[in-house]
Write a structure and sequence with these properties.
4-stranded antiparallel beta sheet; Alpha-Beta Plaits; binds magnesium ion; globular; 4 strands; binds inosine-5'-diphosphate
Length: 137
């Protein structure tokens, strides 16, 4: 069983659709092994997205992620990393396939409702960024 890290981003939490996204996660066979709602600081967002520090959208992205609460999750499933990326859909909701979370709920390229680790290496960085071992079931 593989684990991946997911976020329900500010645009989705603000619109009260956390439950709708959790329903998609569970009905697609992911087991939630960690879940909490947090409001991160700008500094914490900058640390989390450090890989993007040289990208032109880094400041906009970090400001958005720190503007209101998020729900952070660890999901377990066979092939969880690729499976969660597939269920999320393309980064830009306009390019996402029908049935994906970003297609259904995403507002824009920046405010695209969910995050997911893109590799085992990023999952190994992202999970412990938010969760202690004793918080994972
Ligand atoms: P991903 O979330 O699909 O892995 P990344 O390229 O890793 O996409 O970008 C991280 C996040 O940064 C995106 O999910 C989105 O919220 C934001 N982002 C990406 N490109 C842009 C952009 O051109 N303008 C504003 N925000 C962006
Ligand atoms: Mg990414």
């Amino acid at each position: 069983m593989e684990r991946t890290f997911a976020i329900i981003k500010p645009d989705a939490v603000e619109r009260n659709i956390t439950g709708k996204i959790l329903e998609k996660i569970e009905s697609n066979g992911f087991h939630i092994v960690g879940l909490k709602k947090v409001h991160i600081t700008l500094e914490q967002a900058m640390g989390f997205y450090y890989v993007h520090k040289d990208r032109p959208f880094y400041t906009e992205l970090c400001t958005y992620m720190a503007r209101s609460p998020i729900v952070v999750l660890v999901l377990e499933k066979e092939g969880a990393i690729a499976e969660w990326r597939k269920l999320m859909g393309a980064t830009n909701p306009a390019d996402a396939d029908p049935g994906t979370i970003r297609k259904e709920f995403g507002l824009s390229l920046g405010e695209n409702s969910v995050h997911g680790s893109d590799s085992p290496e990023s999952a190994a960085f992202e999970i412990p960024y938010f969760f202690a071992m004793c918080e994972l079931i």
